[in-house]
Design goal:
There is one protein chain. The protein contains ten helices and two strands; from the N terminus they run αααααβααααβα. About 60% of the residues lie in helices and about 5% in strands. Helix 1 runs parallel beside helix 3 (about 40-55) and helix 3 crosses helix 4. It has helices spanning about 5-20, 25-35, 40-55, 60-65, 70-90, 100-110, 115-120, 125-140, 155-160, 190-205; strands spanning about 95-100, 175. It is mainly α.
């Protein structure tokens, strides 16, 4: 009788064959991390649903959703809480980088860290929250580019850059951990498929923004 690890490998190879995506050791590890906590029976059931309903290779987040796990929209609520706590703890002066890359990408698409901090706690916060939740869910589904996941610049780093100072201690971004398991995101690169995914992500993010 096959072990859980062997059954998981069978599931991944079946998905890879069906969606024409190579299952490398790195991909296998990423999916193992992203599906951590699900029973092998849940993963097998999610894969069967994916084969019936998905047009493209499902991400770990999509498989969790198909298995009855946390949906991107629900994950977005936890992410919003983490982002707001970071504003309270660090403010707009510090540069920051979130363990959850989808938070970093979302805040960048909403105008950057300083603009995000300005809009928190005031009359705009309810609109900001709506934009954040929708944009975050979009990134969870589509993925993020390496550029979108770079640290968010705070006022200290911005001023030092203007003055020609580089790599000052106060420029070092604060690393913001998550109190939840961050989603395993597709990393959008330079391939044609990835460029299409990035265009979709940008289109989704821009369409969800509320004018100032």
């Amino acid at each position: 009788m096959p072990t859980d690890a062997e059954r998981f490998a069978i599931v991944m190879n079946a998905l890879g064959a069906a969606f024409n995506r190579p299952i490398t050791p790195a991909v296998l590890t990423a999916y193992e991390m992203g599906l951590d906590g699900l029973a092998i029976e849940e993963i097998e059931a999610a894969a069967k649903r994916a084969l019936k309903t998905c047009k493209f290779m499902p991400t770990p987040a999509e498989l969790r959703e198909l298995a009855g796990g946390l949906k991107p929209e629900d994950q977005a609520v936890l992410a919003w809480q983490a982002a707001v706590r970071a504003v309270e703890d660090y403010g707009w002066y510090r540069s920051v980088q979130f363990e959850d890359a989808a938070i970093t990408a979302t805040i960048r698409s909403l105008g950057g860290w300083q603009r995000f901090c300005e809009r928190c706690g005031g009359e705009e916060e309810k609109w900001l929250r709506q934009e954040f939740l929708r944009t975050y869910a979009a990134y969870c589904k589509v993925g993020v580019s390496p550029e979108a996941a770079l640290p968010l610049v705070g006022e200290f780093e911005r001023q030092n850059t203007l003055l020609g100072y580089r790599n000052r201690p106060e420029d070092r971004p604060a690393l913001i951990p998550c109190e939840y398991v961050p989603p395993v995101l597709r990393r959008i690169g330079r391939s044609e498929a990835d460029r299409e995914a990035l265009a979709i992500a940008n289109e989704l993010a821009n369409s969800m923004r509320v004018p100032d």
